[in-house]
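Feature request disguised as a bug: please show the residue count (272) next to Molybdopterin/thiamine biosynthesis adenylyltransferase in the output. Example input:
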Amino acid sequence: MDSLQDYLRERADAGLIAWRCQLEAAERFGLSIAEVEAVILDNGLLPARYQRNRQMISVEQQRRLFASKVAVVGAGGLGGYILEQLARLGVGTLVVIDNDVFEENNLNRQLLSAPRHLGRAKVEIAAERIAEINPAVTLEPRQVLLDGSNGARLLAGVSCVVDAVDNVSARLEIEEVCEKLQLPLVHGAIAGWYGHVTTVLPGDRTLKKIYRHWQGGKGIEAQLGNPSFTPALAASLQVSEVCKILLRQGRLLRHRQLVFNVFDMEIDEIEF
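Example output, currently without the count:
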């Protein structure tokens, strides 16, 4: 019987392996979709789903994304869009950490929410969604709050952490955990028409500077609410930062806070 490598090379079209061929290879050789995808990329080929990536991301870089593990803390407004985009980008392993369930007030903006999902765990729905849109991606659901006592265990082996929580105290705790574990952190926050994004590397302590005047309680999100569009915008900016971190290219939002105001269509930058 042909080897998997020969099987794939014979069926490649302009360096691309169609989804149908990937499925057939998994069945023929008794492998998972993820295992077949790794072999495709190791042989300099590209799953056809990523063909629109290759003008900006090489096959070697696509392989690096697939070999990466990213943790997303929060699976709500920001987190749902972040998980979706990371999976479609081709990041191979995602850890999603959230202890919440879907409620009706989530339906206006949270990508993973739907009336049929009310009362179900957000991480459970996230796992189902990612398996549907990109079965080559492994999603590890963790229905728990991340804190100093469990951070090392929950974030074991990850390359990057994405902050998608909705309160200041949790953000500051995530920054502390990432500092101890020497992990890069991509932070985003939204409120009404506004939002901001920044990237924090170990030692920067940028969130402590951003929230230096916080005196407890929920942030401004509780006052301004959140529509459907600001989570998508902030999440897209966060995912672009994650991509640059994993590929080690581009200029990061380090020591800089990108602040957007879509009511007046203004974008500002604050340096730290």
